[in-house]
Amino acid sequence: MKNNPFFESFISKITTHANIAHLGYIYFTLAIVTALTVTSKSWRLARNAITWAHELGHSVAAILAGGGVHSIRLNHDTSGVTSTALPRRKRKKTPSPLLEAFVSFWGYPAPGVIGFLLAIAIWSGYSTSALFGLLLLVFFTFLFIRNFWGLLIVLLLGGAIVTCTLFLPTRLDTYPIAFLSSFFLWGSLRSTTESVSRRRKKLLDPNNLGNDVYGVASRTALPEEGIEFLWFGTWGLCAFGTGWLVLNPGILPFHL
């Protein structure tokens, strides 16, 4: 085996200082993300960031639908509420049910989409830009926060990003973005799974359209299971895309 050229080439590649550091960071990041998303106590704290991304998803969807955002509330129990205003139809003077369903749908997939976009930023060489982009998103939500706990969460997120931007050397910007990419991806999966579990255990009120799954189902012909399937499908595409980028570095045409 030791005289095998392929084996020797493989060992040579993975034993360089850069690759050891890279592999070590991957394992370290996965260990922390796993701890944050698996253990109940740390997850309850970390879930506040997932709720922020969730409500951001509703807000961006409302803007894409031609509407606006009135307020965002992030609660101590890690729930959240986003109040939006959508264009009204001329005859019925009410928003289109499809637009309302669109806004309701994009809460749970949002953290996974953010994780995937951060992965694209890493592998295209724009980690520093990604930090500034996240800071802009935090500032956007700051403008609409209407409760103390939400304000605290947003200030903590913004403070962490500013700290990374000001004090980390540019060559290390990749590390916090890689961590956040992993965290948002796994956090998205867990929060979606929890929502499905609560619905199946009948812990959610079907008449409360504030619950995303019922908010979408009541305005479309889709069953709750179909909506959840689309949520998991969206997450799967984001996870697959991230994994593909990790296994094929430099594959993006605009890679720096």
Features:
mainly alpha
Question: What does this protein structure show overall?
Answer:
The chain is mainly alpha-helical. The chain has ten helices and two strands, in the order αααββααααααα. Strands 1-2 form a two-stranded antiparallel sheet. The two termini are 37 Å apart. Residues 6-21 have low confidence and may be disordered.
Topology:
Elements: H1 5-14, H2 17-38, H3 40-64, E1 68-74, E2 80-85, H4 97-105, H5 110-123, H6 127-142, H7 148-167, H8 174-200, H9 212-217, H10 224-247
Antiparallel strand pairs: 1-2
Helix pairs in contact: 2-3, 2-8, 3-4, 3-8, 5-8, 5-10, 6-7, 8-10
Structural class assignment: mainly alpha
Strand content: 5-15%
Tell me about the largest β-sheet. 2 strands, antiparallel
Question: H/E series, N to C?
Answer: HHHEEHHHHHHH
